[in-house]
Amino acid sequence: MTGQTGLLMGKKRQITCEIRNQIFLRTGGVVNFLKTAIGLFVLTVTCFGANASKAGTSGGIYDMSRLLNESHPFINTPSSPWPFGAGRTVRAPANPQSDAPPPVVVPASREPVAAHRGGSNIISEIRLGALIHDEGPFSHRKEGGYDGSLEFIFKSPDFLKSVWEPRPHLGIQINSQGDTHQAYLGLSWEWEFFKSAFFGFSLGGAYHTGETETEELDKKSLGCNVLFRESLDLGYRFNDTHALMVHLNHISNAKLCSTNEGLESFGIRYGYKF
Prior knowledge:
Layout lengths: L1 H53 L9 H6 L53 E11 L12 E9 L12 E9 L6 E12 L3 E12 L17 E12 L4 E11 L10 E11 L1
C-alpha cells in the first residue's frame, strides 16, 4: 500500500508540474504579446505626434484652419478664353455656305429722285372744280350755266427752279349749257402761309369753243380762239393729300384781236396731291 501510495503521489506531482509548466508557458506568451502590442502602440503614437507637429497640429488634434485658409489650387492657373483649356484648338462646325461670297448690299441713295425725271409718277396733283360760268369782276354775265373743271398739275422740272419752281398744268373746263368750253395749259405757282393755307397763281393759254364775233345777246365775242389765261387760288390744305380752295380764272386776248370781251369763271375746287 505504501508503495502504491508513493507511486500515486509521484504521478500527482508530475501532473501538477506539467499543468504549472503549461500555465507558465501560456501566461508568458500572453505577456509577451501584450508587451509587443504596447510597444507598437507607443511607436505609432510617437510617429503620429511627430507628423502632426509638422502639419500644424496642436495637442494631437489636426488644425483645420490651415486647410481652410489655403488658396484654391486652381486660383493661380492662367485663364484661358477656351472652355476646354489653353492650348487646345476648338474648330467651329463646318458650314457648307462659308466659302460663298457675302451678298453685296447696295445702299439706297438718300438723294430724292424727282418724279418728272421719268417713270409714271409725274403728276403732282389733280384738281376738280365746280364753277359759275361767266362770273367775275370783269365779266358781264352774258353766258349762263355752270362749269366743271378737271386739271392735272405736274411736278416742277429742274430747269424751272430759277423762276420759283412753278408746276406745269393741263386742264379742261366744260360748260353745262354748251356755251364756251375751253382746254388750257400753263404754269402754276404756289406759296404757303399760316402753315396750311396757301395762295396760288397761274399763267398760260387756252383754246375755247365760243364765239369770236357775234351779235347774240347771250354769247360773248372773244375775238380769237386762242387766248391768254390766268387764275387765282386761295386755299387750305388739311394734310399732305387733301386741299380745298376758292378759284377764279380769266381768259382774254389782251386786245390783240378785234374784240375782247373776256370770260371768267368763279367757284370752288378740290385738290388731291400725290
